[in-house]
């Protein structure tokens, strides 16, 4: 993945506000990168741009050689479905679907026929096979994040985006989830891009990118 | 395939979570109420059709004073239709010393083609044939007046006939002023032997035709071209204009009542859809994040909608069918009529309307889900994508407009109601917003929770205004249907009071007028009003000669080619209303007043000069007023009335109508005996029929009312639900900041009281307006309203919204705040 000159400005009142200013870097396949910085430093904005969830004011992101901003919204969605997995601070499981169905969701969207089998395997990997038919609201925070991990890895993504994956969890549960994530990451050779303000977690990644006021500082 | 399964899965889960309930309920009620009205009206129409067919004894009837060209019969037979001819003429019938003028009708085998004559020949039954040769069937009046019994012999012309049966229920009566005398039905083959068929006999010929509807219609068109001036073609549609008027009004009223339910359902659906959107924003963002394309998200919801729509339409149709069946069973006259099942068309109409509502009110708002930014997974503060407001509201308006035009039948009425409704919505919304802001700004002197409540409502000005509009709409429908409905129905039924005239008298000679007044006095009956009648023909309009060829419309052609009844009077009849122009002064000269319907048909305007030919001499006068005539008042009415000086010197006869109480029916016979030249017509049956329709309608209105009531409650529920999430979140924050549950309860109740009061105020205003429109334009009667409606509206609004709001939010206050905030 290669980011070049990423800049994001928004209008705040009448004057433009720069959230991200000329950010460039590259991540090799299989590497792990932690984006760190204080609240409001532009971490989440950067992650959103890298994942193609938002469009920059200027700059480019190329993923597997494709400049994702030359694609339209649906094109980027397709690319995400093929290449990317996501883990969020607030888990983002669909409340109406049970654990298994949540894991099946990306496979079904991609039109795979063996979705159920693969989803069950994936839940097995995160140790939640027994809870497959529970609704998210009946699962603990740690369990919900493990379902989210199962959902993220079930498509065997080339790249995993994680936004404060332990932000809503206590230290012990958070540590378990991190171990699981890094292990799956290693096992599948996935590229990991992680936003966190937990320095210890950041330290476990191969590279760190520190943001302050929208600019890379180290 | 997977997508379909996924959407069904989501539907099932959402269903369990109650997300679809309001939407489905609202749609089922809308389809149910439209289907009930449609199916019921269909059956009333069928019942009427049956009755009307038996009124003329055929599908098509041609009457003439001369024998028909044999071509008519040939054409009808060539189309595979049945044909029967009859000849009718007045003749004296004798029994012993007594003679009586009667109406003889000689019929061919096969008569009547439609309906059955009920006779009593010892047994009461429907006649299966015509009278056998040498026998006659006679009606009650003849038996009574000639003091005859079954089996007696009557003299008719040169022959004697045995009375074989009494006619209990007759059909094929003339529509108009002919069936004055007692009826005698005989076999056509006996007619020559009576010797009554002589040169100059006043014979009236009838050719009756029945068969497949399409062929009948085609024949009608073909014959219309060939009819000569004295041949008159009638089909069931021409039968009984009074009944048709009553039914048309009833249908408009019912249609509008059902549509009110549909609009309410639309409001409930829109609110439910809005909530659905808000609750599915996150889910859609996640799916977009996981690679779902816009089309896939769209499909996901479209599938759910189709399933839901089909389910609602099926349930609604069943509900409508069931309600209609119960209604028919509960109305004696309809139960006994043995009606055929209603057609599928009303169900289809209701189904299509249901899908239109779903599309207009729920689906388009949901379309915005497709556009949810995937970035929302990282930044929750991103709101819902802007729905294209014009598209959404425009679509809803279009759907409503379409439904109104379709169901109301009349473009003018549909547009009036729809326009009023939309203007009302905008006005309600704007006023609500304005009032809420005004109150909030001036709330500094109020107690804390009131101030907080007003500020809260004004901060959420838009959603609060939407709630007020929805609640007002629901309240308005409820008020119209509870308070106004009673007034309206009563007013309508009072147009046909118990003493509605049930006898028409024709052919009163000028020198009999006083004697008849005395006759009524003698039997302690109020003397009837008698109107003079002169027959004349319209020959010129503004100096231009008129002829039938000027008018493509066959009714208009008939009107100018034949003589019709004119009258003169110095005062406008109390049951007529002046539509335009001015009624003449006491000494007015050369002025005419024309009924507005016929004026339109013939293209006559105020100020035109009409020339009439009366008994060979002509007069010209100016049209100075147009009148509206209530044809269903059962009173004597005239198309054209002139100033007295124009007509009073021409030979005239008088017409009258009066009410004969059931215990005094014999007075009618006495009247005929004392004044044998009078033609007395019994209109009691028609009145009974119109009353019957009114009763049927009143019951149907009650059923439709129930639907509207339920949809109104659905709106209330949806309106409260639509802000529940926000309210619960706010309550949790206030709790965290130290508000106790007493404060929260008071805060919520204050908010609900304001919402309820405002809604009640608007609802009462809307109800008064809508009731006025219904009275003025649909039922055509003056509107009167109970001032209580304002009190009930505002008081009821406050109580109901507070009560249901308290029930809905009670649990929110009791839930621990952390759980709510964590769930958010």
Please give a structural write-up:
The complex is a heterodimer of chains A (218) and B (824). Chain A has one domain (2-216): P-loop containing nucleotide triphosphate hydrolases (Rossmann fold, 3-Layer(aba) Sandwich). Helices cover 35% and strands 27% of the residues of chain A. Chain A contains 7 helices and 10 strands. In chain A, strand 7 (159-163), helix 6 (171-188) and strand 8 (191-195) form a beta-alpha-beta unit. In chain A, helix 5 runs parallel beside helix 6. Chain B is an alpha+beta fold and 824 residues long. Chain B has 3 domains: 2-48 and 243-495 and 690-823, no CATH class; 82-210, no CATH class; 503-682, no CATH class. In chain B, the strands form 2 sheets. In chain B, strands 2-3-9-6-8-7 form a 6-stranded mixed β-barrel. A 6-stranded mixed β-barrel of chain B has the order 13-15-20-17-19-18. In chain B, strand 13 (530-541) and strand 14 form a beta hairpin. The longest helix of chain B is centred in the N-terminal third of the chain and has 49 residues, at 241-289. The radius of gyration of chain B is 34 Å and the shape is elongated. The two termini of chain B are 33 Å apart. The model of chain B is unreliable at 174-179 (pLDDT under 50). Classes of the chains: A alpha/beta (218), B alpha+beta (824). The interface between A and B is medium-sized, with 37 and 32 residues.
Task: Lay out the secondary structure.
The complex is a heterodimer of chains A (218) and B (824).
Chain A lengths: L1 E11 L2 E12 L5 E6 L5 H8 L7 E6 L2 E2 L5 H11 E4 L11 H11 L5 H11 L15 H13 L5 E5 L7 H18 L2 E5 L3 H5 L3 E6 L2 E2 L2
Helix pairs in contact in A: 3-4, 3-5, 4-5, 5-6
Chain B lengths: L1 H15 L4 H36 L3 E5 L5 H9 L3 E14 L2 E10 L10 E3 L3 E3 L8 E5 H7 L6 E4 L2 E11 L13 E5 L3 H4 L9 E7 L2 H14 L5 E4 L5 H49 L4 H37 L1 H5 L8 H23 L21 H20 L2 H31 L6 H12 L1 H33 L9 E6 L4 H10 L7 E12 L2 E2 L8 H8 L2 E5 L7 E6 L9 E5 H7 L6 E6 L2 E13 L10 E3 L1 H4 L5 E6 L6 H10 L4 E4 L1 H39 L1 H13 L4 H38 L9 H27 L2 H7 L1
Parallel strand pairs in B: 3-9, 6-8, 15-20, 17-19
Antiparallel strand pairs in B: 1-10, 1-11, 2-3, 2-7, 2-10, 4-5, 4-8, 6-9, 7-8, 12-21, 12-22, 13-14, 13-15, 13-18, 13-21, 16-19, 17-20, 18-19
């Amino acid at each position: 993945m290669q980011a070049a000159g990423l800049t994001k400005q928004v209008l705040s009142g009448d004057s433009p506000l720069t959230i991200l200013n000329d950010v460039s870097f590259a991540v090799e396949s299989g590497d792990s990168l932690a984006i760190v910085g204080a609240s409001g430093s532009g971490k989440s904005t950067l992650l959103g741009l890298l994942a193609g969830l938002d469009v920059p004011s200027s700059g480019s992101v190329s993923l597997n050689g494709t400049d994702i901003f030359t694609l339209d919204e649906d094109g980027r969605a397709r690319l995400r479905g093929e290449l990317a997995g996501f883990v969020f601070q607030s888990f983002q499981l669909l409340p109406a679907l049970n654990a298994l169905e949540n894991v099946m969701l990306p496979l079904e969207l991609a039109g795979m026929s063996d979705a159920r089998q693969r989803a069950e395997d994936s839940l097995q990997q995160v140790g939640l096979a027994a809870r497959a038919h529970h609704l998210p609201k009946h699962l603990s925070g740690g369990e919900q994040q493990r379902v989210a991990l199962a959902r993220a890895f079930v498509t065997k993504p080339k790249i995993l985006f994680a936004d404060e994956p332990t932000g809503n969890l206590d230290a012990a549960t958070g540590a378990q989830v991190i171990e699981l994530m890094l292990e799956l990451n290693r096992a599948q050779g996935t590229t990991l891009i992680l936003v966190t303000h937990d320095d210890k977690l950041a330290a476990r990644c191969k590279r760190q990118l520190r943001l302050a006021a929208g600019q890379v500082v180290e | 395939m997977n997508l379909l399964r996924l959407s069904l899965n989501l539907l099932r889960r959402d269903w369990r979570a109650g997300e679809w309930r309001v939407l489905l309920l609202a749609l089922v009620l809308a389809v149910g109420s439209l289907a009930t009205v449609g199916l019921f009206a269909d059956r009333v129409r069928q019942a009427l059709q049956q009755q009307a067919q038996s009124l003329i004894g055929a599908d098509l009837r041609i009457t003439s004073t001369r024998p028909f060209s044999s071509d008519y019969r040939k054409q009808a037979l060539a189309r595979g239709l049945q044909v029967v001819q009859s000849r009718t003429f007045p003749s004296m019938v004798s029994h012993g010393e007594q003679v009586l003028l009667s109406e003889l009708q000689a019929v061919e085998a096969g008569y009547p083609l439609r309906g059955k004559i009920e006779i009593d020949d010892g047994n009461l039954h429907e006649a299966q044939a015509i009278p056998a040769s040498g026998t006659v069937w006679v009606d009650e009046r003849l038996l009574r007046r000639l003091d005859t019994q079954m089996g007696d012999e009557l003299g008719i012309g040169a022959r004697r006939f045995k009375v074989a049966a009494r006619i209990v229920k007759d059909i094929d009566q003339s529509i108009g002023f002919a069936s004055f005398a007692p009826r005698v039905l005989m076999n056509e083959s006996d007619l020559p032997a009576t010797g009554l068929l002589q040169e100059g006999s006043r014979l009236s010929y009838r050719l009756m035709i029945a068969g497949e509807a399409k062929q009948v219609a085609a024949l009608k068109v073909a014959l219309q071209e060939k009819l000569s001036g004295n041949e008159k073609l009638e089909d069931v549609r021409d039968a009984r204009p009074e009944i048709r008027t009553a039914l048309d009004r009833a249908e408009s009223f019912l249609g509008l009542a059902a549509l009110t339910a549909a609009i309410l359902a639309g409001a409930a659906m829109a609110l439910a859809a809005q909530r659905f959107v808000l609750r599915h924003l996150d889910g859609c963002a996640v799916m977009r994040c996981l690679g779902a394309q816009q089309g896939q998200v769209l499909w996901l919801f479209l599938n759910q909608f189709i399933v839901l729509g089909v389910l609602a339409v099926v349930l609604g149709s069943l509900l409508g069918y069931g309600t209609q069946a119960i209604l028919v069973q509960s109305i004696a006259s309809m139960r006994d009529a043995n009606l055929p099942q209603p057609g599928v068309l009303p169900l289809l109409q209701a189904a299509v309307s249901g899908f239109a509502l779903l599309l207009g009110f729920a689906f388009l708002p949901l379309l915005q889900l497709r556009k949810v930014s995937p970035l929302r997974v990282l930044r929750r503060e991103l709101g819902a994508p802007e729905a294209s407001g014009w598209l959404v509201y425009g679509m809803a308006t279009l759907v409503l407009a379409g439904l109104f035009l379709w169901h109301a039948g009349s473009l003018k009425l549909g547009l009036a109601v729809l326009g009023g409704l939309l203007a009302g919505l905008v006005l309600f919304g704007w006023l609500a917003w304005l009032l809420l802001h005004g109150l909030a700004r001036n709330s500094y002197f109020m107690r804390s929770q009131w101030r907080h409540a007003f500020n809260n409502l004004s901060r959420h000005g838009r959603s609060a205004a939407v709630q007020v509009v929805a609640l007002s709409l629901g309240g308005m429908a409820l008020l119209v249907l509870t308070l106004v409905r009673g007034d309206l129905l009563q007013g309508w039924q009072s147009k046909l009071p118990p003493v509605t005239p049930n006898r028409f008298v024709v052919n009163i000679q000028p020198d009999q007028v006083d004697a008849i007044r005395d006759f009524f006095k003698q039997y302690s009956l109020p003397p009837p009003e008698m109107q003079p009648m002169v027959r004349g023909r319209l020959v010129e309009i503004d100096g231009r000669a008129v002829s039938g060829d000027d008018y493509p419309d066959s009714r208009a052609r008939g009107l100018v080619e034949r003589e019709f009844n004119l009258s003169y009077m110095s005062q406008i009849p109390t049951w007529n209303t002046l539509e335009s122009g001015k009624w003449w002064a006491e000494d007015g000269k050369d002025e005419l007043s024309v009924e507005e319907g016929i004026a339109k048909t013939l293209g006559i305007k105020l100020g035109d000069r009409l020339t009439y030919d009366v008994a060979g001499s002509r007069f010209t006068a100016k049209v100075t007023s147009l009148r509206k005539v209530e044809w269903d008042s059962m009173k004597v009415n005239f198309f054209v009335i002139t100033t007295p000086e124009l007509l009073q010197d021409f030979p005239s006869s008088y017409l009258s109508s009066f009410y004969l109480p059931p215990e005094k029916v014999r007075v009618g016979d006495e009247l005929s005996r004392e004044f044998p030249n009078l033609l007395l017509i019994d209109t009691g049956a028609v009145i009974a029929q119109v009353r019957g329709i009114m009763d049927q309608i009143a019951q149907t209105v009650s059923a439709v009312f129930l639907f509207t009531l339920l949809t109104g409650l659905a709106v209330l529920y949806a309106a409260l639900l639509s802000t529940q999430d926000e309210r619960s979140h706010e309550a949790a924050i206030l709790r965290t900041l130290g508000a106790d549950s007493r404060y929260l309860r008071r805060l919520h109740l204050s908010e609900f009281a304001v919402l309820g009061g405002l809604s009640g105020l608007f609802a009462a205003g809307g109800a008064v307006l809508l009731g006025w429109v219904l009275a003025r334009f649909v039922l055509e009667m003056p509107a009167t309203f109970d001032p209580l409606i304002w009190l009930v509206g505002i008081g009821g609004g406050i109580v109901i919204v507070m009560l249901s709001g308290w029930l809905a939010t009670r649990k929110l206050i009791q839930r621990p705040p952390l759980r709510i905030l964590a769930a958010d």
